[in-house]
Amino acid sequence: MADGWEDNWRMFHRGTVVGRFWVGPPWEEPPAAAEAIVIDPGRAFGTGAHPTTRLTLELLQRQEPESLLDVGCGSGVLSIAAAKLGFEPVLAVDVDDAAIEATLANARENGVEVSARRDDALTGELPNCDLVVANVALDVVESLLLRLRSARVVASGYLDRDTPRAPGWRQVDRRTADGWAADLLERQEVLSRELD
């Protein structure tokens, strides 16, 4: 690997504004008008700049704060945003130890309460919660939807030509950017009760 890569990657990690939040690295100054989410990804995936993260964060900001599970938490961007929005409790899971370490460190840096544990959401025991955020691959989202007991899911990590399919779930909102998509999905029985 070339000398200086540890510093060179910083040139590509830039802050971005999404709704009320600025998501960016500790070496940048956030704009005064935005609430900062400072993210140092370390060895974990996720700086907040990818379109799927931005789209998920847009949809998350439109939800009423309740209990939340962040599947595939990476560096913890979505968990931290949820905690800042008033969601509680917030639990983050990931199969990567580096992601759990980064999520907990970034939560401390941002002064929010987030629980995080190493777990495989496709095989492990998932807690009951009101909202799940899952910025992961399409096949993982579809498998996850078969296991969840939550009422709503904000899903992303796939292209805008793709739509998650699973029995009992219905798309109620969609955002797209730069060829990527994020969806708000709700259980159909929840929608049926609201229409009665």
CATH architecture: 3-Layer(aba) Sandwich
Helix content: 25-40%
Gyration radius (Cα, Å) is: 16 Å
Order of helices and strands: HEEEHEHEHEEHEEEH
Mean pLDDT: 89
Structural class by sheet pairing and helices: alpha/beta
Q: What order do the strands of the largest sheet run in, or round the barrel if closed?
A: 6-5-4-7-8-10-9
Give the tally of structural domains: 1
CATH topology description: Rossmann fold
Main sheet, how many strands, which sense, barrel?
A: 7 strands, mixed
| Uncertain residue segments | none
The CATH superfamily is identified as Vaccinia Virus protein VP39
Q: What general outline do the C-alpha atoms trace?
A: globular
Distance between the termini: 61 Å
Strand content: 25-35%
SS element count, helices: 6
CATH secondary-structure class:
Alpha Beta
Beta strand count: 10
Secondary-structure topology with pairs:
Blueprint: H1 5-8, E1 16-18, E2 21-24, E3 35-38, H2 51-60, E4 68-71, H3 77-85, E5 90-94, H4 97-110, E6 115-118, E7 131-135, H5 138-145, E8 152-159, E9 169-177, E10 180-187, H6 188-195
Parallel strand pairs: 2-3, 4-5, 4-7, 5-6, 7-8
Antiparallel strand pairs: 1-2, 8-10, 9-10
Helix pairs in contact: 2-3
